[in-house]
Design a protein that fits this description.
The chain is an all-alpha fold. It has one domain (5-196). It has helices spanning 5-25, 30-60, 80-91, 101-108, 117-125, 128-141, 144-158, 167-172, 180-196. Helix 2 (30-60) runs parallel beside helix 9 (180-196). It is globular, with a radius of gyration of 18 Å. The two termini are 18 Å apart.
């Protein structure tokens, strides 16, 4: 039987790498630091999606939570691949999407009971996912749509319109404590650890 500790451990290793990379980059020129933060955030999103998919697929294929409790699922699948495919079908996409809380909930609805810890945890604490991927999408795509959404995020975070605040600068700004890159990384890490309980 697969274990929830596998994706948790992989994400923990990634977080250590990210923290180390950001410390190492702090001695570089500012433009390189911004670039490192942006690449780090893209990798963070990729690893976070992989961890979410890994945990939920394992839950649906019979793995129990680390505290010994059993998830309340509508059905158990024989393999991680079968569980992943069913989540994809359930989400109504050609591929699994975890980039918004509503997409993640759609992937697992009808498969995991709404009273189960895995569902309730995502529903109660997953709001940060939207902001995390909003910044990621603007870094990755940089089009007018992502720019408009990013400006909205900056307005919420700064309380006023901001011009010329590139994502790398936003992620490393000392105006926020902790810095946004560190906050997003910590939120993902805590989310995964609490999810597998």
């Amino acid at each position: 039987m697969s274990k929830l500790s596998t994706p948790q451990s992989e994400f923990s290793k990634f977080k250590h790498w990210l923290d180390t990379m950001l410390v190492d980059a702090s001695n570089a020129p500012v433009s390189v630091q911004y670039f490192a933060a942006e690449i780090g955030l893209i990798r963070l999103c990729f690893q976070f999606e992989a961890a979410l998919e890994g945990v939920y697929a394992r839950i649906l294929s019979g793995a129990g939570y680390l505290d010994g409790s059993n998830p309340n699922t509508a059905v158990k699948f024989g393999t991680i691949a079968a569980a992943t495919e069913e989540m994809r079908k359930n989400g109504g996409q050609h591929y699994l999407k975890w980039s918004k809380k509503k997409f993640a909930l759609k992937n697992i609805r009808k498969l995991i009971d709404k009273t189960d810890h895995g569902y309730m945890h995502l529903d109660a604490t997953g709001a940060f996912i939207d902001d995390l991927f909003l910044v990621r999408n603007h870094i990755a795509h940089g089009n007018s749509r992502t720019a408009a959404l990013y400006r909205g995020l900056l307005y919420r975070e700064y309380g006023t319109k901001q011009r010329g605040v590139a994502p790398g600068r936003f992620l490393l700004s000392s105006r926020f404590s902790p810095r946004k890159i560190d906050e997003y990384s910590a939120l993902c890490f805590v989310f995964i650890n609490d999810l597998v309980k």
